[in-house]
Design goal:
This protein is of the alpha/beta class. The chain has two domains: about 160 residues, D-Maltodextrin-Binding Protein, domain 2 (3-Layer(aba) Sandwich), CATH 3.40.190.150; about 120 residues, Periplasmic binding protein-like II (D-Maltodextrin-Binding Protein, domain 2, 3-Layer(aba) Sandwich). Helix content is about 45%, strand content about 20%. Helix 6 links the parallel strand 6 and strand 7. Helix 4 packs across helix 12 and helix 6 packs across helix 12. The longest helix has 22 residues. The radius of gyration is 23 Å and the shape is globular.
């Protein structure tokens, strides 16, 4: 073969290789994200706010499908069994880690069954009392609870919820004797406080902050790693208790089925990064009491999930919480 023909053949081979790679480009069809929350629920709303931007960046529509049941377990089991091709993802969260800690026999493993892509958002809970309650500080509440053992209640949206575990952690770390009242849902927390059925609670920030700003509730502490920008004068629970288990944030991100190819996971992560750095998405998250929390890499998110898995297991053990 002469030099000219060799160069032509080499060029053709290179073009064929590039065309093959282009044909394999991800994604080539809409991507489904399975949400374990009811449509219109806090985290589901944030996912839907981010989805159009994520889809625009990926060049495909993001289809959000709600599979509600068993505190997120049904959605997790569904995605764990999906094809590892990047087209079916889970809105994975600390809820899945909590449920596995509460029910070790569940037929899914939040660590082994998924390839974490990126975190999306994080939000603490807020320790609140009625606005007219005689407690100006966390210390006031603790002192009164100790003076009235067995006479105080705290409410939550149900066993194993973030509000339940935050309350149980406070009770355990301070030695209080109070009663947990599991309500029908988190939307009933404020009503229960205002009726006087419960004396304190830990709603997520997205629910609690508007009620605090509206003058119905008073904030005594937040469970985040740092103070909330919306409540700069309210201390963190860690500032007062000096125990790492008092740092509790609800978060959600994207998980792909295990064995999803690294190049697909990386493509999804890159799109998530651009999405979460978009000012409109950040503003929407902040308005709901969340903070956009993009992971540095899929590996960093995987390490975070493993760390959180250990922490939530420790919290469940400390609080003595069971699924029953």
């Amino acid at each position: 073969m002469d030099r000219r023909n060799f160069c032509l053949a080499a060029s053709a081979l290179a073009l064929t290789s590039l065309a093959a790679r282009a044909g394999d480009a991800f994604p080539k069809k809409p991507v489904r994200v399975i949400s374990p929350y009811a449509a219109g629920g806090g985290p589901d709303v944030q996912l839907r706010q981010a989805a159009p931007t994520l889809g625009e960046i990926l060049g495909q529509t993001i289809v959000i499908e709600n599979k509600v049941g068993a505190a997120g377990v049904l959605a997790a089991q569904y995605v764990a069994q999906a094809a590892p091709d990047g087209y079916t993802l889970l809105m994975g969260s600390n809820t899945h880690l909590i449920q596995k800690a509460l029910q070790p026999d569940l037929h899914f493993d939040p660590i082994a069954d998924f390839a974490p892509v990126s975190n999306f958002a994080a939000s603490p809970t807020v320790l609140v009392v009625r606005a007219d309650a005689p407690y100006a500080t966390l210390e006031d509440l603790i002192a009164d609870a100790k003076a009235k053992p067995g006479q105080m209640n705290y409410g939550s949206g149900g066993i194993g919820t973030s509000a339940h575990l935050a309350g149980a952690t406070l009770v355990s770390l301070t030695g209080l004797k109070v009663t947990h009242i599991p309500l029908k849902g988190s939307v009933e927390i404020a009503t229960s406080l205002l009726r006087g059925d419960t004396q304190f609670a830990f709603p997520v920030a997205g629910t609690g902050v508007p009620q605090i700003k509206g003058g119905k509730l008073r904030a005594l502490a937040v469970t985040g790693r740092k103070r909330l920008p919306q409540l700069p004068d309210v201390p963190t629970l860690y500032e007062r208790l000096k125990n790492e288990l008092a740092i509790q944030e609800s978060w959600f991100g994207l998980w792909a089925p295990a064995k999803t190819p690294a190049e697909i996971v990386n493509a999804l992560h890159a799109a998530a990064t651009r999405t979460l750095k978009t000012p409109s998405v950040q503003s929407a998250f902040e308005a709901a009491g969340n903070e956009a929390a993009v992971s540095e890499s899929p590996q960093a998110f995987a390490a975070f999930v493993r760390s959180e898995n250990r922490k939530w297991a420790d919290i469940v053990k400390l609080a003595g919480v069971t699924a029953s």
